[in-house]
Amino acid sequence: MTKKKSKHPTLSEVAKKAGVGTTTVSRVINGGQRVDPQTLARVQKVIESLGYMPNQAARILKGDRTRSIGFVIPSIADPFFSSCAEAAQAIARAHDSLLIVLTTQNDAHAEVESVNVLLRHRADGFILAPGNSQSQVLRTLLKRVQVPVVTLDRPMEGMPIPAVVADNFAGARMATRHLIDHGYRRIACLTGEPTLYTLHERIKGYQKEIETAGLEMILDASIKDYRSAEYAVESVLAAPNPPDALLTLKNSTTIFVFEALQKLGISVPERVALLGYDDFELAATVRPSISVVQQPIEALGRTAAELLFSRMLDGAGAEKDRGKMVELHTRLIPRASCGCRPPQN
Amino acid sequence: MTKKKSKHPTLSEVAKKAGVGTTTVSRVINGGQRVDPQTLARVQKVIESLGYMPNQAARILKGDRTRSIGFVIPSIADPFFSSCAEAAQAIARAHDSLLIVLTTQNDAHAEVESVNVLLRHRADGFILAPGNSQSQVLRTLLKRVQVPVVTLDRPMEGMPIPAVVADNFAGARMATRHLIDHGYRRIACLTGEPTLYTLHERIKGYQKEIETAGLEMILDASIKDYRSAEYAVESVLAAPNPPDALLTLKNSTTIFVFEALQKLGISVPERVALLGYDDFELAATVRPSISVVQQPIEALGRTAAELLFSRMLDGAGAEKDRGKMVELHTRLIPRASCGCRPPQN
DNA sequence: CTGAAAGCGCTAACAT
DNA sequence: ATGTTAGCGCTTTCAG
């Protein structure tokens, strides 16, 4: 109401009011090197009184980094990705950068749009969990991107983009092996959307181990919600030669299947054992407790962010990581549902 | 390797290559109004071939909005806040804006720093879930903020900032009433950090209803992890006149307490009933299923974001919402742990 | 130690 | 319909 546009005070306003040049003010807000202590104090006082804050846009325009990175994931409500996000945000903060979260529901169009948004905002780099590594539009777009990119959880196969993933294949093999070691011989694998890289890899791991052991593969990839899980469990157990163990390949599937088993009154692990992929908060609390393959979720997010920053800071030397794939190890957490412990624990 | 700095192509480069003025290019990228179809096509072709993308920073510098909003929350791994974030991000996207997520672990210093970061970036507004509404630094800072702010889940008491919260007081009253109606007479309330607005309100609701019914208040606000939960459950049940019902006031507390009850082999609801605050994925699946007060989480995030945008778009007219407090209703989901259903369900 | 001045990429008068 | 030009707020040579 006093000035013309009552907006934010500018650097030159500070300079004028402090009776110094803009250069000096600039120096002050950038660490105060090479400035007379007297002037420095005076300028700081003016900054204080005016409530001045440097305008990022102007700095960026001068060619600086934007100090922001993008984080493009299917959903932020998904505990897997929200934990990754928490870790990534911590790394971003440590590098004095902002994390811009964009969600895509695994939709290729949304992914392209998100990347475009980040490009316009001149994000310094971004982390991406692509729903489908085959999307041509996305691949084409990514080829033109000038800033560092790191994929998380799912690589863009055949592209020179570093990826941070869990060892899905090995994890599923280990899980299958564990069930075999328990003496189970008819091990069914339950999952959803095998188009996702992670699930695809896990299915391959299951398959590999089953074949190695000379057993029969029993695969049902139709699970998308509780309904389909209940249906799948009923059908598979009603078959002539029903499975004695169930391997579920992702968190929601495990939970749906567990709910179905419970609802149908099927005793675990007596009638059928259960081993899930992805740990979850109540896995150790439900009865029976659920054995799972645990992914290093937090480490995935952290590693992806660290890798991204290392590439960003490396300048052009980022070549060294091109197409590099970091595989983090998963662990098997044995609990009661696979038969490792009495059902009461 | 061809040009000097091999950076992003600029608008004037496009103009030059297309043989037009910068204004024309500007018009093209802003909808192409008042441009000859011929030229428009030509310019678009050049844009395409150069892979040109407008530089947001330059636009912002011209005085435009930054088309980004801040989202400052304690943690993004917390399912409550990540669901809010998902909803807020959807609204932001609908308004063609970015969501910048900042986490604070409820630390006042981190909150102030986060707000400062957003201010420097000239975010168009932000949503904030303050850990402690009393923090003087934060209050002072917020007073100087020029852009719209909306608090989420926890208001800044006594400040002219609109708040979107759940009806914590009413929710806890309703829960307590429900237990009383079941015939329980010794109802213990278990919780953590009563400094948080939400918990404080819920405790007051519990207290109010207990007093109204002429019962004795039994409060333990010491729960912060599984250890303390187990300890609290043991002590409270070992007392001379132990409770016949437990009311837990937040999601993690409910889960810790449930785990402790299970571990200690205490039958629910026979020996002691349990009613929790916040629904969670397996609440209906564990045995017994847990009755809870369910918060409209997604609506909280959505409403906060909508309110923020309405204030942002309102220009100065945003006065109308000053200090307004939107209270969203919670629901009681009766399951087995309070005695509403046989333990098997 | 400090200041003047030249842009960074874009938009918006103001011309033509 | 389209070009010219003056900044937006800041950093950064280059001279004092």
UniProtKB/TrEMBL annotation, chains A, B:
SMART domains: HTH_LACI. It comes from the Bacteria. This is LacI family transcriptional regulator. Gene3D superfamilies: 3.40.50.2300, lambda repressor-like DNA-binding domains. Pfam families: LacI (PF00356), Peripla_BP_3 (PF13377). Keywords: DNA-binding, Transcription, Transcription regulation. GO terms for molecular function: DNA-binding transcription factor activity; transcription cis-regulatory region binding. Residues 10-53 form the HTH cro/C1-type domain. Residues 9-63 form the HTH lacI-type domain.
